Amino acid sequence: MKSGLGPLLGGRLGPRFGWLWGAYGTSALGTWLAFGAFPLIAIRVLHAGPVEVAALSSVGAAVGAAVAVPLGPWVEFRPKRPVLMAMDLARFAVLLTIPAAYALGVLGFVQLLLVSVVVAAADITFRAASGVHLKSLVPPGDLLTANSRFESTAWTTTIVGPPLGGAAIGLLGPVATVVADAVSYLLSALGIRATGGDEPRPERRSGARLRASDLLDGWRYILADPALRPLFFNTAVFNGLVVAAQPLLDVLMLGRLGFAPWQYGLAFAAPSLGGLLGSRLARPLAARHGDHRVLLVFGTLRALWPIGLAFTGRGTGGLLLVIAVESGLIFCCGVFNPVYATYRLQRTPTARVARTLTAWTVTTKTSAALLTALWGCLGALLGLRPALALSGALLLATPFLLPHRTPAPAPTPSPA
């Protein structure tokens, strides 16, 4: 795999980055093709109820995050490319157990839950290793360009994947899209292998072994850094509240307001164009105004939109309101996300990136799972619109958690 799309995709960032970028796009497309496949399998094949479906999304993510905690320190002191390939191959293998069990007539809910746990843990571990690998592939000055390309790809696959996946589910059933998702991870592993290059094995301090206290190193570093600490709390709360409101909006739109499935799909596919535009503007905005100002401005602007979802009504007006709110939110996130990802990498010494990203992702996924469960209860107690309004009102306070002061230079890397 020495030729092909890698050099073309990489551009001025080089063919090694091109292969990594292509691998990311392939797995992202596979994930969006299979969007909603697990709940559909649970409902249509296993006849699961609401509690089981909720557990599939929340418990699977939370347990997967807990499983990933010890993997952060483990990843830190190993070559990252083999770890990335291993996580892709693990997801490929575990996802294929679903169509195999379905074909044999032995597929059960517990298996779906276990697969979701493994996939969640592998995803967190992959993200932790990929941050370090990216820093080794591109110069520091090109990190924002690289992250902007990843962000653009994420929104592009969000636009393309769900409609194609929906068509495939209609023609072939939800199990077929799980196969497509599994194959995408195999192709991703091959793309990462094609990045090539020598990667020295990271070394621990002489005589040091992995200790129980090492599991908390990522959190200790984040909380000790005056710039990362507020950003950490901001993203955990913001992401959690946005994710928690989504099931309530689903029930409101598809249930009480009677939107057709195609209208629902349009309401969340069309706004992804805003994310694509925002990701393209992130680099020039950061170059002109600075990373810190972009984080502060767009971190604030993204919090202003979601409260509008509480006023969603019937018909075309309600659909246009959802599209407008989601477009504004996603555009701001499209600018914010690559700058934030780059800022986080630049503030973190290479020897601590894997542990830091593991701690960060575990926290955001766990907070999202807990808040989703809590907002499900609030939706039942208060009603859908009041619960959506409460989520939006709390989001208005999240800008206070952003790093308002211009940060001091990143601390000098210390031994791991």
From TrEMBL:
Cited Pfam families: MFS_1
Keyword DNA repair: no
Primary location: membrane
Transmembrane segments: 20-41, 53-72, 92-121, 231-249, 261-282, 294-313, 319-341
Top-rank lineage group of the source organism: Bacteria
Assigned GO CC terms: plasma membrane
Protein name: MFS-type transporter involved in bile tolerance, Atg22 family
Gene source species: Actinacidiphila guanduensis
